[in-house]
Amino acid sequence: MGGASSEKTATGYAAHDDSGVLTLYTYKLRQTGPEDVLIKVLFCGICHTDIHQIKNHLGMSKYPMVPGHEVVGEVVEVGPEVTRFHAGDIVGAGVIVGCCRNCGPCKSNIEQYCNKRVWSYNDVYPDGQPTQGGFSSAMTVDQKFVVKIPSGMAAEQAAPLLCAGLTVYSPLKHFGLTGSGLRGGILGLGGVGHMGVKIAKAMGHEVTVISSSDRKREEAVEHLGADKYLVSSDEAAMAAAADGLDYIIDTVPVVHPLEPYLSLLKVDGKIIMMGVINQPMQFITPMIMLGRKSITGSFIGSMAEAEEMLEFCEKKGLSSMIEIVQFDRINEALQRLERNDVRYRFVVDVAAGSNASAASSND
Ligand SMILES: NC(=O)C1=CN([C@@H]2O[C@H](COP(=O)(O)OP(=O)(O)OC[C@H]3O[C@@H](n4cnc5c(N)ncnc54)[C@H](OP(=O)(O)O)[C@@H]3O)[C@@H](O)[C@H]2O)C=CC1
Ligand SMILES: O=C/C=C/c1ccc(O)c(O)c1
Ligand SMILES: [Zn+2]
Ligand SMILES: [Zn+2]
C-alpha cells in the first residue's frame, strides 16, 4: 500500500444493470483526504434497500454500483486531520457519507435529513466521483461518518446495527418511545424488524411481532424474546388485538394496506413507516381521526444516534442474529433475501473472500 497521496483501487461486487446480479468490479478509490479514513472492509450486512437500489425500484439507480451500507472494517490509513481514529481501529460506516454541514438539519445534528446528503453508494461526491459501498475490499470515508465499534462487540454482529439497528433506535428516541412498559408492534420480521424486537425489548417494551405467516413464530418468541405474535391474515387474532399498541414499526418493503395495522393502535398511537415503497399507499381518514393516530416515517439515524445506539447495545449485551455469507455467494444471498428466506440478516464475510488486500496501490 502506498502513501496517502497514491492512487488506490478496490475490488467489489457491482451491479451493472437492474437484473439483480452482481459481478466483480475493480475501481479507483477516492483519495484519502485530510479528514478521510481508509477502511479495509471486514464484514458488510445486506439490507433490503440494497435490493431496491440494485433492481432500480426507485428509478434512480446508476451503474456500475457497488452496494452495501452496513460496513465494519479496520482502519488502515488516516488523513492528517483525522483526530478520532487510528490505524488498527475497528470501525463502522453506514448509509450516509457526506452532508452540507450548513443547513438546519446539519446544524441540528440530524444530518441524515440534509438535502445535500451523500449516499454511501449510487451517488456522487461534490467533485463528481461516484460513491461505492461496502461489498468491496475497501472504502474511504470522511471521519464524520465513521463510528468506533465497541471493543466487546464482534465485528460481524455489529454490521447490521449500522443500518437496521440505527433505523429502529432513532425513531424510538425521537418520538419519546423509550419508556418501559410501552406496547410496541414490529410489522415484518426481517433485518430491521428483528433489531426492532431486540431494541424494544431492551427498552422494556411489551413487543408484538406482526408477520405475514406463522413460519417465524417460534423463533420470534423463543430466540428474539417477542411477547406476542400475530399473523396479519388471521382476522380473529387481529380483531382481538385491536387498540392495544402504542406504536408499530412498519418494515414491509412493498405496498400493503394500512387499515389493519392502524386498528391495532391505541389512541395517539403511531405507525412509523420504514419500508422504501415507491408507490402510493392508501388509508381512509377516520382510521386516524377516530383515535388521533399518526402515520409517520423515519430515515436511519444521525451519527450521534449511531454512537449512542452502539453504546446502548453494548450496555444491554445486544447483538444481531445473522447468517454469514462468503463473498462469492453474495448473489445467492440477495436472491434468498428477496424470497424472505433469511434469519434475520445476511452478513457478507468480505475480508475472507477479498483477494485484494484492503486497497491496492499502483505506486
Ligand atoms: N427508513 C429507513 O431508514 C430504512 C428503510 N429500510 C427499508 O425497510 C424495508 C425493510 O428492510 P429490511 O428489514 O432490510 O428487509 P427484510 O427483507 O429483511 O424484511 C422485510 C420483512 O417484511 C415482510 N414482508 C412482507 N411482505 C414482503 C414481501 N413481499 N417481500 C419481502 N418481505 C416482505 C417479511 O417479514 P414477515 O415474514 O414477518 O412478514 C420480511 O422479513 C425495506 O424497504 C428497506 O429498504 C431499511 C433500512 C433503513
Ligand atoms: O437502508 C437504508 C436506506 C433507506 C432509504 C430510505 C429512503 C430512501 O428513499 C432510500 O433510497 C433509502
Ligand atoms: Zn439499510
Ligand atoms: Zn446539510
From TrEMBL:
Presence of keyword Oxidoreductase: yes
InterPro entries given in the database record: ADH-like_C, ADH-like_N, ADH_Zn_CS, CAD-like, ER, GroES-like_sf, NAD(P)-bd_dom_sf
Cofactors that this protein relies on: Zn(2+)
Name of one Pfam family that matches: ADH_N
Keyword DNA damage part of the UniProt annotation: no
Superkingdom assignment: Eukaryota
Residue ranges constituting the Enoyl reductase (ER) domain according to the UniProt record: 20-348
Catalysed reactions listed for this entry: (E)-cinnamyl alcohol + NADP(+) = (E)-cinnamaldehyde + NADPH + H(+); (E)-coniferol + NADP(+) = (E)-coniferaldehyde + NADPH + H(+); (E)-4-coumaroyl alcohol + NADP(+) = (E)-4-coumaraldehyde + NADPH + H(+); (E)-caffeyl alcohol + NADP(+) = (E)-caffeyl aldehyde + NADPH + H(+)
Assembly and oligomerization: Homodimer.
Protein name from the UniProt record: cinnamyl-alcohol dehydrogenase
Organism per entry: Platanthera guangdongensis
